[in-house]
Structures are given as C-alpha cells and as structure tokens.
Specification:
Layout: H1 5-12, H2 16-23, H3 31-43, H4 50-57, E1 62-67, H5 73-88, E2 92-97, H6 104-113, E3 119-123, H7 129-137, E4 142-145, E5 155-159, H8 161-175, E6 181-185, H9 191-206, E7 216-218, H10 223-234, E8 242-245, H11 248-260, E9 270-275, E10 288-292, H12 294-309, E11 319-322, E12 324-327
Parallel strand pairs: 1-2, 1-3, 3-4, 4-5, 5-11, 6-7, 6-8, 8-9, 9-10
Antiparallel strand pairs: 10-12
C-alpha cells in the first residue's frame, strides 16, 4: 500500500488537515502531535506528492534545467553546480535534455506549462526568434546559460569565450613561435563558437599571422568531428604547425586521429583545446587548454534564479561573464 496523508491521519487518529499542517511545520499543531505525525510518516516512508503540493501552494520548489545533451562531461559539471546551489536553498533540480527527438522549444513548453517547476535554467547556443517569443510568454522566471551575447532582456550567464580563445591563440604565436595555426570551430550558428573564432582571428591579426582559409574547419563539438577535422587539416599539402580546437572533445578526436596515423603531439603538430574537462590532464600528452569553471557557470545561474524566485534579485537582466584561464600542459 502506498502511504498517503489519509493513512497517516488514520494511524495518528487526527484529521487530514492536521497531518498536512504538521508536514508543513505549521505552528498551529502542537509539538507532541507534530512529533507523532512525523514519526508515523517516517515509519511509512511517506513521500509528498510534489505536483499536488505545488498546485495547492501555487509555488514550486523545483527548478528545471534544460541541456542539449546530459551525457557530455561539460553538462555534467553544470548539473553539479546547479544542484549545489538548489540543495543549499531547499530546491530540487529537474533535468531535461533537448535532442533529435525533443527540441529545445518542446522542452521549454513542457516544463513551463506543467506546473512542476518554479523557474528554468536553459543552456541555449543561439537565441532564435521562436525561442525568444516563447521565453517572453512563459509565466516563470528564466536564466540563460551561454547565449553568447546580451541583446535581449533575459538574465544570462556566459563564458568569456573571446578572451579565452584570444589568449590560447596568442600563446601559440608569442610563446611557442607558431605562425601556421589551424582552428577547428564548433557549429556555425552557436554564439559561443562565433566569439571563440573571433578571438582566434583577432589574435592572429594582432600578431601578424596570416590565416589560411583552409586552416579553418567546422566541427560540431564531438570527438568524431575533431577526428575528421584533424585528418582534413593534416592531409593538406601545407600542413599547420598547431591546431586550436574550440572544445576539448574535438581535441580528443584529434588525439585519436594523430594516434591512428602515427602523428606525434606536439612533435609533429601542437594542439590546444577549450574547456579543461576532467580527462584533459590525464591524456598523454596532457592537453593545453582554456579552463572554464564549468560548475561555477551552473552555480551562478542557479544563484540568480533562486534570488529571482525568492524576490531578492534587484538587478535587471544582468550579463554575468565567467572568466577563463589558459592551462599549460604538454600538447604544445
């Protein structure tokens, strides 16, 4: 038998209303009665119906987190950061994933309309008109992660993509002496990708390095795309001396391709990534990369949303930029 408030009331010989008050720490219930009810609830392993409680209170203590792919290590760190803050503030985190079977707009509509969540954190690569229109109509507070730039009236947390890419590229030029540098980008519509590409190009221009068009290859942030991009670049007659990959997953693909074709990193070609995911320091040779405090991105987004839910956020649509740091290892 599934434990219910009615069952607890029968065992405690009190009304259902009294049980409900006791479970919600209502001062109108005496300490003796409250203790008895809570003990029975614990013995029955009673779990409250969150949806029903939200309906009665017209408030949810659950935060929705929508990510493109919950299997990627980058997103795992975001979940960890969000959950750290929600747990400290007595909120739950409900994670949903948008993918080829469920679009981002489908996920936003589903979570915002069912009453289960009081607010949303959404990782969005680019703000389309459709997404903007949906976000303007939903009734719960929203915080965005990674929309690249602040053009709309939404609280947003972004990585300092431009500076991270600029620093990585300039390191290859000024500290390592390379003047033939390739760049594997992410998906062209992604705003973060555009900023990383701009940082790469501006660092080359500032330091007088010519950018060969064949040295810029588009990937899609996956290991597989990095693998094929490496093959394309290393197959050129005039090969690059170094590759700057727009994320570590594509850099890992470069390692796989280099290993398959017996190309030595960094002796034959140098490599730099972006993100500093967990495996980056353990791969051989260790990957030089741009460190992003990914869990801090999640913590910042969750803190903003909790403040909005508690009515303590006095800022109006702030743009919160998380700094990056170049981590030097042995891949270049």
């Amino acid at each position: 038998m599934i434990p219910t408030i009615k069952l607890i009331a029968e065992k405690a010989n009190v009304s259902i209303a009294t049980v409900s008050r006791a479970l919600n720490n209502d001062e109108r219930v005496t300490s003796e009665t409250s203790k008895k009810i809570l003990q029975i609830a614990a013995e029955l392993n009673y779990k409250p119906n969150i949806a029903a409680r939200n309906f009665v209170k017209k408030k949810s203590n659950t935060i929705g987190l929508i990510l493109p792919d919950i299997s990627d290590e980058f997103f795992t760190d975001i979940i960890r950061g969000v959950d750290e803050i929600t747990y400290k503030n007595d909120y739950y985190t409900m994670v949903a994933s948008s993918h080829k079977y469920r679009t981002l707009t489908d996920s936003i509509i589903a979570l915002s309309d069912n009453g289960l969540v009081g607010g949303l954190i959404i990782l969005v690569s680019a703000l389309t008109e459709k997404i903007i229109n949906i976000l303007k109509t939903i009734k719960i507070p929203v915080v965005l992660i990674g929309s690249g730039k602040q053009e709309y009236e939404f609280d947003t947390v972004v990585i300092d993509n431009y500076q991270g890419a600029f620093a990585a590229t300039e390191y290859l030029i000024k500290k390592k002496g390379y003047n033939k540098i390739a760049h594997i980008t992410g998906p062209s519509e992604n705003e973060d990708v555009k900023l990383r590409k701009k940082g790469f190009i501006d660092a080359c221009k500032k330091n007088g390095v010519n950018i060969d068009k064949s040295f810029i290859v588009e990937g899609n942030f996956t290991i597989d795309s990095g693998y094929h991009a490496f093959i394309q670049l290393y197959g050129l007659k005039d090969k690059p001396q170094a590759i700057f990959a727009a994320n570590d997953m594509m850099a890992l693909g470069c390692y796989d391709a280099a290993n398959y074709f017996n190309v030595k990193i960094p002796d034959d070609i140098a490599l730099v990534g972006f993100d500093d995911i967990f495996i980056s320091k353990y791969i051989n040779p260790g990957l030089t990369t741009v460190r992003v405090q990914i869990d801090e991105v999640g913590r910042t987004a969750a803190s903003i949303l909790v403040d909005k839910l508690n009515g303590t956020n006095g800022k109006v649509h702030p743009l919160n930029k998380i700094p990056t740091e170049l981590i030097i290892r042995d891949s270049c």
